[in-house]
Amino acid sequence: MRNYFTQIKENPKFLLIFSSILFFFTFSAFAQEKDQEVSKTIYFTANTGLEKESKTDEILSEIVKSSQQDKDAAIVVIGNITRKDGYPKNKKDRKKEEDFLTNSLLNPLKNFNGNVIFTPGKNEWNKGGHKNIDDLESFLQDNSKSEFWPNDGCPIERESLSDEVELVMIDSQWYIENWDDYPYLNNKCELKTREQFFAQFKDELKDEQNKTIIVAIHHPVLSANRKGFFGRMGGFSNQAYYNTQMQELVGRLESLASQFEDVIFVSGAHKNLQYLVDDGIPQIISGASGKIEKTRPEEDKGYFASNKNGFAKLIAYKDGNSLVEMYEVQDGKSTLVYTKEITRKKGKLEDFDYHTKDEFGSTYKASIYTEEETDKSNFHEWAWGDHYRDVYSKKIEAPVLFIDTLPNNMKASRAGGGNQSRTLRIANDEGREYNIRELRKSAVRFIQSTIQDHYVVDYMRNTLAEDIVLDFYTTAHPYAPFAVNGLSKNLNIYHANPKVVYVPKQKALGRFNESYGDKLYMLEEHVGDENKDFETFGNSDDIISTSDMLLEIQDNKDARIDEDEYIKARIFDMLIGDWDRHQDQWRWSKFEEDGKDIYKPIPRDRDQAFPKYDGPIISLLKIGVPALRVMQNYEPTIKNTKWFNLAGYPLDKNFINTSSWEDWKKQALYIQNNLSDEDIDNAFAELPKDTQDETIDQIKKTLKLRRENIVDITKDYFTYFKKFETVIGTNEDNKFLITRKDNGITKIEIEEDNEVIFSNEYDAKETKEIWVYGLDGDDEFKVEGDGNNPIKLKILGGEENDIYDFDRKAKTKVYDYKSKNNTFKNVGSKRLTDSYEINNYDPTRKKYSSNVVLPSLGFDPDAGFKVGLSNTFTTYGLARNPFSTQHTLSANYFSATQGFEFNYYGEFAHIFYNWNLGLDAKYTSANYAINFFGVGNGTSYDNDIDKDFNRVPIKQWHVAPSLIYRKNSTMKAYFKPSIESYEVDNSFNDFVSNFYDENNDIFEKQMYAGAEVGFNFNNKGSLIGYPRRGMELDLKAGYKSSINEDYDNQFTYLNPTVSFVYPIHESGAATIATRASADFILGDLGEDYEFYHAASVGGNESLRGFRNDRFLGETSFFHSTDLRVGITKFRTNFVPIRLGVTGGFDYGRVWVEGEDSNKIHTSYGGSVFLNGFNAFTANVGYYLSDEDNRLIFTLGFRF
């Protein structure tokens, strides 16, 4: 063979080709390198404080060595940097921990070439919690070049690592901790609730969506760790991956992250190396610094895991791509074992088709929906209503907008929008920002907002559920809200100036052409500080959000809400029928006047104005779903102002503190007198001509009529509003002087720095209860005065040390932390508790009640069809667990016996700390029936005999108060005394009449008194859905005794139950569900107790192939097991469906003294189920036994 280089030398043509190829690859490599320019290199490790089999020194040494080659690097140590006792409080132990941290962490990282960042994990919360975290933060930052985030024991912090990379750090231990253990938790944090945390996380992702966002969180949102038997079912520790609260946290974080691009989670709690992906969200785990935890990734999906020590490295490029590298460290050397490119490259203009200006005139005709989308059947229109459906498919002529024709080089900036809308922010060179919002709302965004624990957007597209939501959107007129700015102008209410435009796909949209353009949009000014000098925003000193403004008025005694302006705006909401007035629907113009900061409201997002809810289905849904009661048809008056104002009510309680009815009436009259018919006509005349049809005429007519009723509407809401009041201090030291005056008048004054910053009087005729919040600071509360008919007061001292001195104690109750030092000079009723929920001030918390009426339908072969109705009335006050009170009254009719039953259950929260008071009552008609087949494990059964023969008419009632301990949603315990009555009817020629002599005591009315204790742990979640894992442990024990003089029945009973749902596959697609239960009655059946108290098996809850209560005895046991397999998942026109089958087997028996029976009764069968999106399951089963076979339909699963 001739030498290769000889060919090049002797053949000039070959040489030319070779040189060209060489040049091409060299240039390509150079271009690729330039395109892949590194923005930041980040190293990740964790668990450096875990001493067992620690390899921290070797790992950090290799990281430091590698960083020397990086131009711009950072290291993030994601939790467990201290040893298991955290950062101790006492000096001796603290010094030891500081020496450990210095030697094992700070010294090894001294030469790291870049930023050093520490975040908290589980260990940092041990033995001191967030207060010691503050001290740890100070030590680390004082003794190294490092940063510790989130700081002050708060949950979230965001920092820029480069122009293209943002680091969002989350303290996941903060979320899963029991907040009642930390009286001063969050006192240095802006975020006070878990819901506020999720809202902040979403805002961080939204604000930085054009960058690579790294979320550093100790506990992973995804993991392939081997969990163990109990761990796979949720475990008992809050550290378990499938723990209920942990799944709530990681599910919601992943769901929120899935709505954005460029989000990468990095975690360290699990002690290994992993790379996983779910719904497009990458998860890196780098916690392999010591003893390793075993993991089992799905390698066929490209996932990775290493069970060796090491670290992770992420190279973030400027073009949006990233490269993950996993290194194993052994014997002081690191080896690259895995690489994975995370492709997040933004689309470029050339990737999309777009239009040019010469393709369009000045206007263009378009519609929001197609005609096919609004063409509904007559029945659909009758059931759901006409709405404004035709308006949505009507083409209108709108101005064409090319955004680069707007002043000062306007460009697309970032995507946005709320739970329904799709918005694009545009900005010019002067910093002015505008929004273009698509008039066609997103149904899948709304569905996602209601399903918070997992991502659903991609699965809900092109389904009937999406179609239903899109059709429901037609209840809101799409163009009428554009007249609101004209109405607002006449009333001097700040407002934006929206306009209808058609936005083609265009060059100026750039990469946003992928999702935006070729539709009708609303163009309006962004309500933000960059536009604060706009006249319609008040030409103010600043514009801030509601959350920021709430913090301002708590921190600054000189900050005030302009109550008159806010009341006017809220009455205007009622005038135009805009019920969706939650806190994000407001911005606030700030004015500095005479040393005070005055905030005036800017209402925004008026897309719910003038709604049309005209179908009977919506009216029916409101009966069972209180949240829908805000949706009231736009009519001359408001049927229920309480429910209409549900969204705005919490803000009203925060912002309207001193105004009387005269103040409200003044603003209502102002609106009435300053909004003429001509003003209304002129405002709507500004709409595009094609939109000015009969629907607009009807809206104008109704608006004029509602204007005439606005004083009465305002009075109705004011009456409800004044029943409950809140008074809120500041975070500084305040003095509260509360004076009880004559005729039910209570005066409250607040002083700060010897200045009265609040003063108001309350009348008992209007106000029934007042909550007074001291917030932070050393506050002093004094109650005096001898006035009659005082209003009920609840005083919450809040944080720091407070002084209470009450000369008048009637109807005044103090709430404060039990573990704090407070001064009680002269106080009557007080409740000292470390309950965070009670003591913490939450601006969204409101006192309210709701009533829900629901039908009840069912079928049982023994009882026949069941038809019933239940009514649940729930109140939410200050102390909740999870509500304040709840009362449920139900009535059911059974077709097989024509029997009735009436049930009542009531519960009253926090009678004692975490203890609720319950009351259970039941009454049945005389023809209400149960089954009786005799006593024993071998009783005979004739399938040819009519079912009525074994039915026993029994009239019964019982009343049982109880004390219920609820620690969380998964565990409860109770003590329940009871009294009950039974009366068996023997007037029929049935089995029971033949079994017992007619003079037997069983046919006499018998009454019993008793008591029961119970414990229940259940983390399976809803059985109506598709439980994929979990366990239930239940134990009941009790005693009952006859209280009739003629009878001496008495017995003790014990009923343990264990139930598991164990996932065979980690996804839960295949599970084994099993339940075992025993019932022990200590006594002789027939001598010490009657058959209706006996232990039994048979029926849907035990042996599914037998009739209910088929076998009775003194002791019973059954064990039911299902193998449940989801065969396939497929999309339907309704929702994504999981089709599955179950195979079930039951066995069990009863024991009676003296009976010689060894038979184990068995039944077997299976079912087919359809599960809709893990939310609901229709389950049809067929079960057989040697006596009978039964067809069973259930909603969900029995266990």
From TrEMBL:
Signal peptide: 1-31
Keyword Signal: yes
UniProt keyword Signal present: yes
Keywords: Signal
Name of the molecule in the record: Calcineurin-like phosphoesterase family protein
Species whose genome carries this gene: Mesonia algae
